[in-house]
Amino acid sequence: WYSSVPTDALSYNRPTILIQLPALQRLLPEAEPALRALEKAGILHSEPEKAAQKLNEIYDDAEDWWASSEVQNARQTFLEMFCPSCEDWERDWLRRLQNMERERVTS
């Protein structure tokens, strides 16, 4: 599910429950801590039934669940990795590309 839908949903900061089926390969090993945090916070589920169970659990207080520090910290960790944003995004992207080029040249 590495697409814009999860990052958009999480960046809008609205209660979100995601499903990632185990059959889908996790492409980035360095993403594991962020994905585990989403799982622990109840945002990411490996089975539709578990996602439905979580939805039923939080349904009456979804906004309170979403505002909890565990959920917000997991969300922020994921967004920092997959959806970085800043006001000076052009300079940030240029810096990142230059760093990638330096790493490529030195390896």
Describe the 3D structure.
With 107 residues, the chain is mainly alpha-helical. It has helices spanning 4-11, 32-41, 48-58, 62-67, 69-82, 89-106; strands spanning 18-19, 44-45. The protein is built from 6 helices and 2 strands; from the N terminus they run H-E-H-E-H-H-H-H. It has a two-stranded parallel sheet with strand order 1-2. The longest helix is centred in the last third of the chain and has 18 residues, at 89-106.
How is the topology of this model organized?
Elements: H1 4-11, E1 18-19, H2 32-41, E2 44-45, H3 48-58, H4 62-67, H5 69-82, H6 89-106
Parallel strand pairs: 1-2
Helix pairs in contact: 2-5
Question: Could you name the key traits of this structure?
Answer:
6 helices; 2 strands; two-stranded parallel sheet; 4% strand
Major β-sheet annotation: 2 strands, parallel
Shape: elongated
Strand order of the largest sheet: 1-2
SSE order:
HEHEHHHH
The separation of the N and C termini measures 31 Å
Structural class: mainly alpha
The count of DSSP E runs of length 2 or more, i.e. the number of strands, is 2
Q: Per DSSP, what share of the residues sits in E-state strands of 2 or more residues?
A: under 5%
Question: Which residues sit in consecutive blocks of at least 5 with pLDDT less than 50?
Answer: none
Helix content: 55-70%
Total number of helices: 6
Rounded Rg: 16 Å
Q: State mean pLDDT (0 to 100 scale).
A: 87
How would you briefly describe this protein structure?
The chain is built from six helices and two strands. The chain has helices at 4-11, 32-41, 48-58, 62-67, 69-82, 89-106, and strands at residues 18-19, 44-45.
